[in-house]
Amino acid sequence: MFTRPEVVAYMMRETRWAGGFRKWSVLRVLEPSCGDGAFVLPLVDALVAESPDWNDSSLNDFLCAFDISEESMSRVRNAVDAKLSAAGCPKAVRGRLLSRWFFCEDFLLYDFTRKFDVVIGNPPYIRFDNLDSAKQSAYKSRYCTFSERCDIYVPFFERSMSLLSKRGVLSFICSNRFVRSSYGRRLRKMIGDSFHVALYLNMEHTQPFETEVSAYPAIFVLDRRMGRETYSGEISTLDDGMLERCRTGIAKSCLSRFDHWYGDGEAWLTTDCTVRSMMDNVASSFPTIEESGAGTRIGIGVASGADDIYVAPQLSAEVERDCLLPLVASEDIRNGRIEWNKRYMFNPYDNQDDRQMLDLERFPRASAYLNRHAEKLKSRYCAKKHPDAWYRTLDRIKYSTLRAPKLLLPDIQRGGNVALDERGEYYPHHNVYWITSASWDMKALCVIMRSSFVTNQMRCVSMQMRGGSIRYQSQNLRNIHIPAWSSLDERDVSTLATLYSEKDIKKIDACVERVVAKASFRQPPRISEQSFDFGSAVM
């Protein structure tokens, strides 16, 4: 991915600002994945513009560029050679510099003997599963952040930070997925413990590369100056000089200033310090969903391990009716309502006891169907682990979930699409999350979950997808705060419940706002009274 020139120029400018650097020629610069030279060539241009003394031996250490592709490295070397030649650099000096500046090596496995003042670039995007086993083992043994099948850019961060000098600055453009994901926690903690985030610019809704890719990019500038302020922001376009307005150290910058950034591995929820304050107030004033009422639980629907067999369109015609469960998938939930498309799932468990397998002798059609697919079903890990129950689903089906009134939330949505299975008729598929409760009035809870009060929290705790959709995963839902059930009076509950069929989000928000404002002052005082302002908390 070739980074656009204006983005490279912005990163170089912010790097100099963060480090207080006056000249590039006196620095030691590392580019850990130079590719086609998107950063290397502008760095050489900056060096040439300073009219350096080509006989100065310190230039040997100006640049250290890595890449594993010999072809890319050759192209960049030739382009740099041409720039140096045009600048009057003698041929012998050019040869020496090129031999010192370029390394066709694996950056993550190379043993360095020096530190760098600047590490800048666009680290590679390679998923854990796309690496061969030898690389996986080698990287895991060296880098503690390389966990949970994360992307290779994560250990690139760890290695690069370890190579910074005391005055060093790291400037990367790469995926922002680690700032909220579980696999990014170790990296976030490492940054928070030993480094200062000078700049975090979220660019996930822009295209900072020459070719269009779905990379959810952001710019990160880190240094070792602990305790200083952090500048952060989010932009949706690179047009109209937007990057110029996102510079640090200028008047009327579009960036938000944080006196204290996120620490101890916590997720970087927002780039807006006002929203951060709102989220802190909400978290201090209300319990999480599962803490909000007795017996309130969050979970995910069933994964069969072989949907083409367990959720096949022809199932209802091939097996006995008593072996089928009505299955609701994400596409069945529209505008807060269940519009079931008559999709069924084969249920391999006893109808009365979900801890026992179905007796296939009692269901000859189901037995014949399963045996036709036995080879594939028995090859699954869960079947090998339980050979006597080879026709089980990957996840166990729980009748307590099926029969309970429950809220159903599609995994990927723009927010507020929450349906109520009031009579416990459907089992959720793996792309649907559910909420059950032994205490809540489920219609009232449904209205709260549809409100902007919850959706705005979800936008902070969830990674946004291309197009603005968000992930309603259980790890995100468990970080949402709502009023405690016990804090609501009967009128509150009744009013909320009557809005269950309401489609106007403004009416829902107005009601939830009133309820939240009242409930906040009925909670045990965990913060000073004047520090909570519902008008701020609603976001």
List key phrases describing it:
20 helices, 2 domains, alpha/beta, 9-stranded mixed beta sheet, 33% helix, single chain, disordered C terminus, Rossmann fold, 16% strand, 20 strands, Adenine-n6-DNA-methyltransferase TaqI, Chain A, domain 2, 539 residues
What is the number of independent domains?
2
Largest sheet: 9 strands, mixed
The name of the CATH superfamily of the largest domain reads Vaccinia Virus protein VP39
Q: How many β-strand stretches?
A: 20
- CATH topology annotation of the largest domain: Rossmann fold
Question: What structural class do you assign from the helix and strand content?
Answer: alpha/beta
> What low-confidence regions span 5 or more consecutive residues with pLDDT below 50?
524-539
The number of helices is 20
CATH architecture of the largest domain: 3-Layer(aba) Sandwich
The whole-angstrom Rg is 28 Å
Order of strands in the sheet with most strands = 3-2-1-4-5-7-6-8-9
β-sheet strand percentage: 15-25%
Q: Which overall shape is indicated by the principal axes computed on the Cα atoms? A: globular
Mean pLDDT: 92
Helix residue percentage: 25-40%
Spatial gap, N to C terminus: 36 Å
CATH class designation of the largest domain:
Alpha Beta
Characterization of this structure:
This protein is an alpha/beta fold. The protein has 2 domains: 5-271, 3-Layer(aba) Sandwich (Rossmann fold), CATH 3.40.50; 297-537, Adenine-n6-DNA-methyltransferase TaqI, Chain A, domain 2 (Alpha-Beta Complex), CATH 3.90.220. Helices cover 33% and strands 16% of the residues. It has 20 helices and 20 strands. The strands form 5 sheets. Strands 3-2-1-4-5-7-6-8-9 form a 9-stranded mixed beta sheet, with helices on both faces. Strands 10-19-15-17 form a 4-stranded antiparallel beta sheet, with helices on one face. Strands 14-11-18 form a 3-stranded mixed beta sheet. The model is unreliable at 524-539 (pLDDT under 50).
